[in-house]
Amino acid sequence: MQPDLLIVGDSHTAALQEAAIARGMNAKMLYISGNHWHENKMRPHATQGISAAYRPGLNRRIAAFAAEVGGSVFQPGIPVLASFGYHLGRLVPLFARHGHSPDGPQTEVEDQHLFVSDAFLHAYIAHHRGSLLRVLRLAAKQANVIVVAPPMIQTDPVALRFADAITEIVRGWGVTVFDPRREPDWSGKPLPDHLRAPDGVHGNAAYGQEVLARLFDRGLIRNAA
Questions:
Q1: Which helix (H) or strand (E) element contains residue 140?
Q2: Cα 55 to Cα 59: distance, rounded to the nearest angstrom
Q3: Quick one: three-class SS letters along 79-91?
Q4: Over the range 135-156, which residues count as b (16 or more CB within 10 Å of their CB) and which as e?
Q5: pLDDT per 10-residue tile (average), the chain, 225 residues
Q6: Bridge-partner residues for 105, per DSSP?
Q7: What's the pTM?
Q8: Alpha-helix residue ranges (DSSP H) falling in 97-204
Q9: DSSP string, 190-201
Q10: Which CATH code is given to the segment(s) 5-217?
Q11: Of 50, 108, 181, 221, which residue is least crowded by CB atoms under 10 Å?
């Protein structure tokens, strides 16, 4: 039986998968550790969608998933929720280690003076996330890809600016992004405790259900079981 939803990404996929199953959907999930995504070595692949040939074991797992769902991780005709490209917990600390901060109103934090320009910020993102964002851009040309940005866990201004910049880049290519930071009722506020997983840094099934409900309400996912 062909799935009616594909979920591809890092540990944030778990909440989406739980929510999809709770809705009675035939959802298939490809989970890949954030460590692998952070390496920025995933590549677009003409047939299976993503290639990780630098890691043969991981690539075999990707190829097996692609074959199971019809040939490609980004299968035409099946909505794909993509939870990768951000990975802020690995990206932002490296940038902020010596007190650097992106310029702009969101990062005007007292005693932070090592500002960098938007051009530098975008170049930094391109260096560390360019391959992943290219996968998203090309995948969206062949499938209904909806990027689900990670929920806001802390109101760290540097992380907020990075998340906004990545969302701006991806949306600039015409790719659909659901960004919880830009939801009116969630904007500027950390994810409430009742929507957090026990580890405190991921959304739980209730959060996943809320995300899916909003995607359905907006017509971004239509193929419910």
A1: none
A2: 6
A3: CEEEECCCCHHHH
A4: bbbbbbeebbbbbbbbbbbeeb
A5: 93 96 96 94 95 93 96 95 94 80 58 75 94 96 96 86 94 96 86 93 95 96 62
A6: none
A7: 0.91
A8: 118-139, 157-172
A9: PPPGGGB-TTSS
A10: 3.40.50.1110
A11: 108
Dig out the tokens for 168 from the structure. Answer: 């701006």
What are the structure tokens assigned to 105, written together?
């109103």
Burial label, 205 (beta-carbon count in 10 A; 0-12, 13-18, 19+): middle
Range list of β-strands (E), the chain = 5-9, 27-31, 43-45, 49-51, 80-83, 100-102, 114-116, 145-148, 176-178
The ranges assigned to domains in the chain are 5-217
Residue 65, amino acid: F
Among the listed residues 118, 117, 174, 184, the one whose alpha carbon sits nearest the alpha carbon of residue 141 = 174
Torsion of the alpha carbons at 193, 145, 11 and 30, rounded to the nearest 10: 140
Joined tokens for residue 102: 């992106």
